[in-house]
Amino acid sequence: MTNRRQFLSFATMSLASTSALADSLTYEAFHHALDQNARLLAYADHTGDVAGGATVLGRLPADLNGVFYRNGPGRFELGGERYHHWFDGDGFAQRWQIRDGKVSHIGRFVATQKFEEESKAGRFLYPAFGTWLDRKPLKNNDTGNVANTNLLPFNGRVYALWEGGSATEVDPQTLATRGIKTWRPDLKAMPFSAHPKMDPDGGLWNFGTAPGANQLVIYRLNAAGEVTRTAMIPVPQLNMVHDFVVSGRHLIFMVAPYNMTNAAEASFADRMQWAGDKQPLRALVISKDTLELRQVFELPARSVFHFGNAYDDGAVTRFDVVLHEGDALRKVGLPMRGAPRMASENPSSTVQITLDYASGQAREARLFGVSEFPRVMPQVVSARHRKLLVLGASGRELILDSVNLIDTDSGKTDSYAFGPGWQVEEHVLVPRVPSRGARSETDGYVVGVAQDTRRAQSVLTVFDAHNIKAGPIALARLPYRAPVCFHGNFLAA
Amino acid sequence: MNKLMLALLFAATLPAYAADLTIRIDGVASADGDIKIALYNSADGFLSKSVRGLQAPAHSGTVEVKVADLPPGDYAFAVYHDANGNGKMDRNMVGMPTEDYAFSNNAVGKRGAPRYEDARIVLPADGAVATVNLR
């Protein structure tokens, strides 16, 4: 019914109202809730640089040496106002150094144009992903670049990634901001996703998609960071695409059923209108050799963020992905106001999908319940993999609190639950030595960060990849809490 | 009317064509290439038919260009830093400008160039200074 839809769209508009008054209401609501619920610390604002040494409990393996780079939203509040969406926060880059059994940590904000201008002004100026502001207009994608989603070591450099604009280069030792990275002059200020996929030859595949553009841009970089191939693929009704997956011969994207509205004074998130009752979830398969669309598959409507890995298997391609029932994007705003998210609302699950080119059908097999942040061992990316690492949420509230290594052949899971008060961040698989050729996917470690919200401390965790249920073999506790990160990568020394 | 009075009448109208518009361009990133300016005086001609075109060598910081002897009235201008000196605004793969640019009033469009109304400035008979920022 038209009236109901209009009412709903007004309701969502008022939830993310444009006025400063609503932003200070978000601020008050959050701080009131935080006083009573320390678990909300994960969404608390952060200011300033941090640096410290961690206290190691347990034993760090002698052959685990390197840097764990991570990135996430760190600034949510300025001038008494608070952002509405978790994805809005300005990037706070972090670096955990593991060397000779010791762990040290630094973190600092990425000095983007937006961060510097808004810090100087003492208030938010530019529109953010989920919060509309129009004190200053966006001149191009990089004017509003928050550089907050991933931190990627590549070709001897380190890049803070944010899907709406360019990569931002930071110093690998100090994390000082070096500036916007333009890979090639005709690619200036173009969106460069936060989820590139490393190729076995040392290069990478990535993509970009701009709001309302209906164009999917593909980038192929070689190991020296040179752009060797690009393509623009028209995709009808394209909206937010956060991640993708790469097999030996294909690039696979999933586009959730949202319509982009042209609402004038609305943030990007608010312009995404869920259309799952009418439209399917699409899987787009692009051939690597032609960089053209090979086939589109339709699946029952769900929303999607992250993928595991893909491989071609005869006449099919198989891949894992975490799918969310309904519109999962909007609920990410709830904890920003201090309201809990329940695991039963828009529940996610990890599934393995098989794309059958001959029949045009997609088949699904469920691998795990409420979960997110899938990762695989780096040496199996785009090849046949058998282990998938995901985080799980064991309680009624949607708090990720377990680490789970799924055997994708048998469906068996090797799991560890952290217990109450813990909020677990993305964990990654680290091979025992930089490997070439066949090596067991459990020959190595699982490394991550978990927030001990009871003690307000950030903790680096290390597991033996072949025995997750035994629990961490080492914990490195910082004497302080650093902002929660979305994504990161381990660079072996 | 005798010839002396006609001459005096004409002399009295001359200052109306001598307004100077000084354009200050802040945020110039380098000394490479030139700053190029296109001046428009109507919504119809905005971005298609300029009434004046000028350029000045670029240098870091602020570049000032004086547009002399203009009739007073409404104007808008577009400025860009042609850093590689190829005489045109370079664009990326999706058509967005990759060289620094600005419009009068630092006006910004929703999807591309701003509207003439947002970029419009008024030039009075005794001149004006208009400042824009390329960043």
Oligomer: heterodimer
**Molecular shape of chain B:** globular
Strand segment count of chain B: 8
Largest sheet entry of chain A: 5 strands, antiparallel
Rounded Rg of chain B: 17 Å
The N- and C-terminal alpha carbons of chain A lie at a distance of 60 Å
Which two protein chains have the largest interface (Cβ within 8 Å of the partner's Cβ), and how many residues from each? A-B, 20 and 12 residues
Based on secondary structure, the structural category of chain B is mainly beta
Structural class of chain A: mainly beta
Proportion in helices of chain A? under 10%
Total helical elements of chain B: 2
Sheet with most strands of chain B: 5 strands, antiparallel
Q: In what range is the share of β-strand residues of chain B? A: 35-45%
Total beta-strand segments of chain A:
34
Task: Give the helix level of chain B as a range of percent.
Answer: 10-25%
Return residue spans of chain A where pLDDT drops below 50 for at least 5 consecutive residues: 1-20
Radius of gyration of chain A: 21 Å
Strand and helix order of chain B: HEEEEEEHEE
- Please give the order of strands in the largest beta sheet of chain A: 1-7-6-3-34
Average pLDDT of chain A works out at 92
What does the secondary structure layout of this molecule look like, with pairings?
The complex is a heterodimer of chains A (493) and B (135).
Chain A: H1 2-15, H2 20-36, E1 50-53, E2 55-58, E3 66-75, E4 77-78, E5 81-82, E6 90-99, E7 102-109, H3 113-121, E8 150-154, E9 157-161, E10 167-170, E11 177-181, E12 197-198, E13 204-209, E14 215-221, E15 227-234, E16 245-246, E17 250-255, E18 258-260, H4 268-271, E19 272-274, E20 281-287, E21 292-299, E22 303-313, E23 316-324, E24 348-356, E25 361-368, E26 371-375, E27 387-392, E28 402-407, E29 413-417, E30 422-431, E31 444-452, E32 457-464, E33 474-477, E34 487-492
Chain B: H1 3-13, E1 19-28, E2 34-40, E3 52-57, E4 61-70, E5 73-82, E6 101-103, H2 116-119, E7 121-123, E8 128-133
Parallel strand pairs in B: 1-8
Antiparallel strand pairs in B: 1-4, 2-3, 2-5, 5-6, 5-7
